[in-house]
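Q: I have 87 residues here and want to know how they pack in 3D. Can you give me a structure?
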Amino acid sequence: MTQTNQDAKPALPDHLSVDPKSPHFNEAVLSFHIGIRFNGVEKTNVEEYCISEGWVRVPAGGKSKDRYGNPMTVKISGKVEVYYVER
């Protein structure tokens, strides 16, 4: 049997966010499991990334909120690698 187009994965974008209000939100890409390696360490709590600028945004921890009521995040710089995880 031949594979269908359902298995075809879209190309990973340079900039991606999990926030639906962000202009960098991409539901087609987020429907697949994505792995992010930051400075050689696997990260599972990334809210947003940019490969070309070399940064990820992760939760700051604690109970602090921004002015819109969202949890505070911290932007950290380093080498970002993104890939699809095969299950």
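Q: Anything worth noting?
A: Residues 12-84 form one domain. The beta strands are 15-17, 34-38, 41-43, 48-50, 55-59, 73-77, 80-84.
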